[in-house]
Amino acid sequence: MTDVIFEKSIKGMSGVTLTDENLATDFIKPEFLRKNVPELPEMSELEVMRHFKELSDKNFCVESGFYPLGSCTMKYNPKVNEYLTSLEGFTSLHPLQEDEDCQGALELMYKLQEALKEITGMDAVTLLGSAGAHGELCGMMIVKHYFKTKNDTKRTKVIIPDSAHGTNPASAGMCGFEIIKVQSNNKGLVDVEHLKEIFESNKDEIAAIMMTNPNTLGLFEENILEISKLAHKNGALLYYDGANLNAVMGITNPKIMGFDIVHLNLHKTFAAPHGGGGPGAGPVGVVEKLKEYLPVPVIDFKDGKYFRNYNIVNTIGKIKEFQGNFSVLVKAYAYILMRGNTLKEASCDAVLNANYLKEKLKEYYELPYDYPCMHEFVLSGDRQKAAGVHTLEIAKRLMDSKFHPPTVYFPLIVSEAMMIEPTESENKARLDKFIDAMKTIAKEVKENPEVVLSSPHNTPVKRVDETNAARHLDLRYRKD
After folding, report:
1. How far, in Å, CA of 407 to CA of 70, rounded?
2. Phi/psi at 375 (5° precision)
3. Where do the H-state alpha helices sit in 86-186?
4. Residue 54 in 3-state DSSP?
5. Which domains does the chain have, with CATH numbers?
6. How far, in Å, CA of 295 to CA of 141, rounded?
7. This prediction's pTM
8. 3-state DSSP call for residue 369?
9. Maximum Cα–Cα distance for the chain, whole Å?
10. What are the pLDDT digits (tens) for 50-85?
11. What is the spatial distance between Cα 95 and Cα 457, in angstroms, rounded to a whole number?
12. Phi, psi at 306, each rounded to 5°
């Protein structure tokens, strides 16, 4: 374990003085002033830098190892994109500057909108979403407002598959919709017959169906055109959760599948890194009939000038201050320009990598749905559970081989689930090492389960009480 910075403190040592000790404080109310000098660590600047470098070296990230976190698409983010966001023409801009003073930034956003329209097939795009879930919320607000302006107030329900991301029911619920769950069939796909029953028993009450395609099992919804026709026949909208677009971009798009609204996760599909709470970006695209409901402003181009357009007839209003998280938009646009017409190759490689892992591992772990997958797949640890080792232990044991664990226990329809997504970033040699590690763990479960049950062994922090750590988080240092 690394000593905390207070334990490295040496009395009398100092680095830099950040404030003038003679600074007048009479403008501050006495009750807000400290009574005693704060007990801060006493260290040189060099020792402080070494301390935080040591901490950073203990972090796991996609640059330090394989990160097969299912449904989160932890792909490699080109570092040149970070440089581009630091260009003075971007960093020196103020969001309240007049349009004529920030034509470059507006041009970038306009062209990003156009690129995302091309990729998704949608007719209009807003870049204002702060992240995927925020984009979802925006999309469902559009659904709500659309039916309100049509005086179709009976449509108060949204259909969501039982394998869906948890943000789907949350976003719909926050907009006041009642959630109806549609079951998966024995192939892991939306049960169309159950869907028909839902529409039959909820006539004129369904506002939308929210779907991910490929779904969270990594399987392509082969009946998507039938589902789209069913939704539209019954007056409902079809919403596309873009979390898994990394599997199909350049191959098909939400418009071809029959979707009316789509949100995108720029970190999952267009290499704008996420983690640590953000920032993120969740653009939303819509078909022609929903253009007038987009949040404001939308970036437009007229008479040789780019401008922020607030004149949207039935807009849902503002959902984000200024223009959203602009630096994330710069990274995504740079990635799209960098890949050009090879975006399709990124999807094809992601699908190839996932199928390679699936075929190599299904002999050692249960594969609930043994079909060709898209960019991710879900294994089950039921076989290992029968031997007394749960999926959680398998995940922790992987850490000893310097692999980040996959998503575990999701989707909920798979017992002891392990959701694995290699992305397009990894080469065969790295995938083979992961396969070897997973095989070794399966063998250990049979021959020496204790080594798995007591893992991880090689990480800075070993076994922790996760429930107490989550419920009783304590980040305060106490000398005693």
Report:
1. 5
2. -85, -10
3. 88-91, 103-120, 132-149, 167-174
4. helix
5. 5-58 (no CATH), 80-341 (3.40.640.10), 343-469 (3.90.1150.10)
6. 10
7. 0.92
8. coil
9. 78
10. 999 999 998 888 889 999 999 889 999 999 999 999
11. 49
12. -95, 140
